[in-house]
Amino acid sequence: MDNSIEEASRPRTIGFWGAWSLTVGVMIGSGIFLLPSVMAPYGLMGFSGWVLTAAGSIMLALVMSRLALRTTRSGGPYIYAREAFGDLPGFLVIWGYWASYWIAIPTVAIAFVGYLAVFFPALSQAPIAQAGVALGLIWLLGIVSLRGVREASLVQLGMTLLKLLPILAIIGYGAVAGQVENLPDFNPSGQPFLPVLATTALLTMWAFSGLECATIPAGDVRDPQKTIPRATLIGTITVAIVYIASTAAVMLLVPASELVDSTSPFSDAARGLGPWAPKMVAIGALISTAGCLNGLIFIAGQLPMAVAIDKLAPKAFAKRNSGGAPQLSLLVSLILASALLLANFSGELIDTFEFLLMMSTVTILLPLLVSALAELRHSWATARSWAIIAILATLYSAFAIYGSGLEVMFWGMVLMLVGLPVYVLGRQRKVGKVSPSALLE
């Protein structure tokens, strides 16, 4: 049976809450537990950055929601780029995007081990044990995704709800017991408004990475043209509220002079609840990190499958097991992530790992930029209000990419171009030997 026909006839197992949890669960990872300290030097003016990035992310969520109305296929930004601009742009987008996921997987796993050291201090001095725990976590969650789409979705929903509990507890505690006297000055840095806005926006925009996640497994989502737009928009708004409210709560609970130097601001904020509270926050961080990792692994398996369905990659990547999981796509992603993890824990290759991680940054943002341009192309002649939203989302995405730095931009583009030989081979399998001009069709 043709892969595209087989996909269209598959039962869909992810509902609204599963799609919502994928969006929220990937966006809220380990970073939220350090952001209040990172923002503290900029005082209350730092919230201007939160407002800008939240507004920009909601614009992007609107664009992704609008694009999701036009397709029921898995692939998200890849599908949008390919339908608007052709095979080559679509392939390059998903090549870099996929790489950013299997590079992010070991990074998040390492963050998990860091929080686990709160309960097992000896772990912080045992790099081999750290690597073993991180590797075990990757493959444990990999097995969950390999068992099936439904299983991965249920685990994602459970972890997302559990990770929100300690964060919501801090928000509630801050509202009840927080003291205005603890708040930092309006602008302790003394810098003009625009430089502070630019700096805090760049610090906070990474917190919204992953807002597009619900669009990617569209082929497994029930009523995707209704469910995905709602999950994407509501999920992004949920995250914006949680980030801003939790940052404000921590600032109300921890004096500004202490918050600037805090390495565990949520634990410091929770101390008033009792001696058990910091451990509760650490457990929340572990669940949050594991939930983010579960989502990353699930999405990493979906991406090669989407390309293979279009016959731009070996068809084996499109095959699913009895649970509906793209088995080979997942296994290759897990193997690549595991290799990078082991490279990180070998002294000679740590610089290589950091180099690859840096390159992945811009490849997360580029699909959002291309998606915004795709919506602009669709709506320019027929829906000017949506075209304006697409322009704003494009400008925000471009600002985010520029803010990542010229070196990151350069090496991110190099990473994407490395995929060109793979694309050529895929096209040759699809249509036979092709001329160079045909590659742009």
Automatic annotation (TrEMBL):
Keyword set includes Chloroplast: no
Gene Ontology CC terms, in alphabetical order: plasma membrane
Family per record: Belongs to the amino acid-polyamine-organocation (APC) superfamily. Basic amino acid/polyamine antiporter (APA) (TC 2.A.3.2) family.
An annotated Gene Ontology molecular function: transmembrane transporter activity
PANTHER family referenced in this protein's UniProt entry, alphabetically: AMINO ACID TRANSPORTER-RELATED, ARGININE_AGMATINE ANTIPORTER
Name assigned to this protein: Arginine/agmatine antiporter
Function: Major component of the acid-resistance (AR) system allowing enteric pathogens to survive the acidic environment in the stomach. Exchanges extracellular arginine for its intracellular decarboxylation product agmatine (Agm) thereby expelling intracellular protons. Probably undergoes several conformational states in order to translocate the substrate across the membrane; keeps the substrate accessible to only 1 side of the membrane at a time by opening and closing 3 membrane-internal gates.
